[in-house]
Amino acid sequence: MSPFVTPSTAPTHREPTRRQDRPSGERGRRVPRGRSLPGAPMSATARRGVFAEYFAGFDWDVSFLAFLYYCFAVITFYLPGADIAIVIALVTLLLRAKTLRVHPYLLTLSLVVGWTSLTMLNSEFRSASWLAWWTFAKTALVGVVSFLVIRTRTHLKIALAFLVGCFFFFPLRGAFFNYFGGYTLSGRVLWNHTYGNPNELALHGLMFLSAAMALLFLVKNSLTRLGILTFAPLCLLLILFTQSRGTFLAAVAAGFVGFVGQRIRLRPLLTVVVVAGIAAWFAPSAVWARMGGLRNVSIEGGMKGVDEGNSAEQRFLIAKIAAGVAESHPLLGVGIGAYPQANSLMAAKLGSKFAFGGGARDAHNTYLLLAAELGVPGLIAFGVMILSAIVIPRFRARSLGPEDRQAVRMMRLGLLGFLVAGVFGSFAYSNVLYIVLGLVAAAPAALSMSAEQSRSRGPARRGMPSSLPALTGA
Q1: What is the pTM assigned to this prediction?
Q2: I need a surface site. Which of 163, 278, 298, 334 has the fewest CB within 10 A?
Q3: Residue 457 pLDDT more than 80?
Q4: To 10 degrees, what angle do helices 245-259 and 285-292 make?
Q5: Is residue 276 very low, low, confident or very high in pLDDT (cuts 50, 70, 90)?
Q6: Is the dihedral of CA 296, 298, 301, 307 positive or negative?
Q7: Please, what's the b/e burial string for 407-419 (b: 16 or more CB within 10 A of its CB; e: otherwise)?
Q8: Which pLDDT belongs to residue 389?
Q9: Contacting residues for 57 by C-beta, under 8 A, at least 6 apart
Q10: Which among 380, 382, 371 is positioned nearest to 330, based on CA atoms?
Q11: HEC letters along the chain
């Protein structure tokens, strides 16, 4: 042994890291993420299983658990106490007020709630307006909690996976069970409660589909990918089986915008084509007959002949009535929740030509409903609130990695689908909308914070986890 080499500094066995150091049979092999070469230490993720991506290092705080309970209760309708859960979540969040953050979305949401209060106090139909305002105020709190509980990447991934799972195992599964069991609405698939309305079922399916696609960019384990590739065609098939023309057009618009300006790669394009093809193949002929009626859309013709039930013609008349209500109450509207009564009065005022759209009916148009109930300022405030959750995340996502940017983009496409579908239905006060709004608004900051924490910890050693639990004394 050389006198310059002591036992403490003698060379030890070194794991082959460079390509030329590996055995010849292993050179050029691509090592899958989360795995290692034979003989190398097993990674922490591989030892803990695929769900380590969701739960590693996660702090199960009460506010987040209460928020998940609320989501389960309002999506599945299997458990009571949704209002209590959201109050618990809000109170526990306020107990750590120093960690709360202000966002333009929260400011504009507060503005909308304040304006609805004015419309309620000014309404001629005070009792109906009061009940609607109280319900919306609780829904707005959901939007606040949804934003505040999402603080890290882990929060976002768990929330998205939980929402998709709730919709998959309850409304989506139950709707198909109803359909194949013969329980339909004139051939249209439906479930129960809120989802007894095929249009609402379809729209929520589109929004949860965008959540699943966002999750596809955030979690890389094979179990999640398999679940999403199962959920996506079933969700598209659900939209077709509801025969909701508005949501169908919304899905087409979101898909088109999703590809515009993007570098189109063959594999994702083929995946989308295959998924859409599977859904189209299994769709019954009644779906395409109803969608084919869109060729007869004509404003001059009053939407006659678009469908056999003349629902498009009736909705066109209601849209004219709603425009008349909004024109006669341009500032404060008729009050939140008071449109059905105003529709009945306005239809009678306009004469027998509008009798087909008369009675206490819904406006079937989110924007006309808001203009009629909240006035033009209320419609503008609602639009600014939606844009604050769509546009601002786009700018903040520029500092994120490419996959995180795509995840935020998928979530924003779900809101774009809502905006398109809102032309054909009244969805402004849906609790699922405010759950998604909060998640979209919170996502860029949560992903950015997690990325900064990962960089501050520095690069991990080969075969070792990126962080170790701290050892603290008693």
Answers
A1: 0.81
A2: 298
A3: no
A4: 80
A5: confident
A6: positive
A7: bbbbbbbbbbbbb
A8: 87
A9: 154, 467
A10: 371
A11: CCCCCCHHHCCCCCCCCCHHHCCHHHCCCCCCCCCCCCCCCCCHHHHHCCCHHHHCCCCCCHHHHHHHHHHHHHHHCCCCCHHHHHHHHHHHHHHCHHHCCCCHHHHHHHHHHHHHHHHHHHCCCHHHHHHHHHHHHHHHHHHHHHHHCCCCHHHHHHHHHHHHHHHHHHHHHHHHHHHHCCCCECCECCCCHHHHCHHHHHHHHHHHHHHHHHHHHHCCCHHHHHHHHHHHHHHHHHHHHHCCHHHHHHHHHHHHHHHCCCCCCHHHHHHHHHHHHHHHHHCCHHHHHHHHHHHHCCCCCCCCCCCCCCHHHHHHHHHHHHHHHHHHCCCCCCCCCCHHHHHHHHHHHHCHHHHHHCCCCCCCCHHHHHHHHHHHHHHHHHHHHHHHHHHHHHHHHHHCCHHHHHHHHHHHHHHHHHHHHCCCCCCCCCHHHHHHHHHHHHHHHHHHHHHHHHHHHCCCCCCCCCCCCCCCCC
Mean of per-residue pLDDT scores for the chain = 81
Tokens of 204: 């929520």
* Residue range 58-77, pLDDT digits in tens: 667 899 999 999 999 999 99
Are the C-beta atoms of residues 189 and 178 closer than 8 Å to each other? Answer: yes
Torsion of CA 241, 244, 248, 251, to 10 degrees: -90
As a three-state string, the secondary structure of 410-453 is HHHHHHHHHHHHCCCCCCCCCHHHHHHHHHHHHHHHHHHHHHHH
Buried residues in 258-289 as b, exposed as e (16+ CB within 10 A): beeeeeeeeeeeeebeebbeebeeebeeebee
| Pair 333, 372: CB distance under 8 Å | yes
CA distance 274 to 244: 22
Q: Tell me how far apart the alpha carbons of residues 287 and 244 are, in angstroms, rounded to a whole number.
A: 9
Task: Tell me the one-letter amino acid at 23.
Answer: P
Distance of CA 454 to the CA centre of its chain: 26
> Quick one: CA dihedral 190, 250, 150, 454, positive or negative?
positive
CA distances from 182 to 177, 179, 352, 452 (A): 9, 5, 38, 53
